[in-house]
Amino acid sequence: MAEAGAVEDARRPEPTGGWLFAFCLSRVGFGFIFTTYSGALSLLRLDWHMTAGEAGLIQSAWHIGYLISLFTVGFLADRFGARRVYVRTGIAASVSALAFAVFADSFWSGFLLYGLTGLCSGGSYTPGLAILSQRYAAKGRGRAMGYYLAASSLGYAVSLALTSALLPYLGWRGAFLVTACGPAVGTLMSFWVLRDTPNVIAPAAAEPARGGSLVAVIRNRPAMLAMTAYMFHSWELLGMWAWMPAYLAAAAAHGGSVTARSVSLGAIFSALTYLTSMGGSIAGGTLSDRFGRTAVILWMSLGSLACSFAFGWMVGLPLWLLVAMGIVYNFTAIGDSAVYSTALTELVPPRLVGAAYSLRSVMGFGMGAVSPWVFGLMLDWGRSGGAPSERLAWGMAWSSLAAGALLGPLMTLRLRRLPESAHLAGGRR
Asked: 11-426 maps to which CATH number?
């Protein structure tokens, strides 16, 4: 009862809309550095003399660093409080982003410094979700988390738009320097917006689980099903985010050599798809409050799977059609992200939320770290034959994302059939 009381005290009264807006705005800044590399990927492949596999591996380095960060900050949030971890890790994210922008100049330096940036950037994600789970009751929690993840998409979109605008004038280095300022701005905002937010530390259970909090989460079958579904979801989503700008840049080149102009077009069109994905995050979270968590996950995941299988084979079609498809793709691929995060807070006790997010991060971003690399390998393979085909190369690359995500809906169906799923969304599964 003490544990529940501590968390309820933090939730009452719920924050105003202005507080949520300001908190989400701080998250926008942290999203800047995530897409700046993918926005310039096509040019960096030429300047750094990389294969597609090596280019994808740099994006994978980010995800590896990010998953280590998320695994660590989840436990730190349980021990020291989510608010404290959120504001302090923002400083490390700001410094590492600037180091990448200033010093990256080759495959190996890019690999190491972008991996370091990912390693320092997890503090604004799971601790942020934990803060929202503490402040909002179940009836509005999905909506709040949807807005928070939508803020991430806005950060990705603004970063790509800036990259697109700056590439022709400042080159990729200048674009990196400008977008690297985003985490610093987000950190300053977080100090202000969280100044009166309680730093909640849930009391430990009277009888700790044998093996600790991580073992307790692993023994929670419904939570593990939700995390396994999220793992396959991450394979598709993170691979798509890494390669969307390069794909649209290739489409803008109309089969010719990639130029700064085509890369700029690829970045701005990708930014447009990220803007619409904000609607996916908000819609997914809000709909899950009304119709149920697993129902919305199934709707969104099946839609994104269809897009993954079809998208690559559409290369060569009019650019406007590819952008329209990219909008639908991003909307559905991100639409269930907030729902996974919300469902996890309803399947584990409050004292285990940080540990659950940590384990989920290793599973999800572990898969997501591999998918951009595999995508690049498939792209190289499709272009290496005696009669290389761009449609075959891109088709197989995008289909690899769908193949890795196929088991996600099956895990969600298994979760939906468990009696514990009645605890989701106040009984709406």
From this structure: 1.20.1250.20
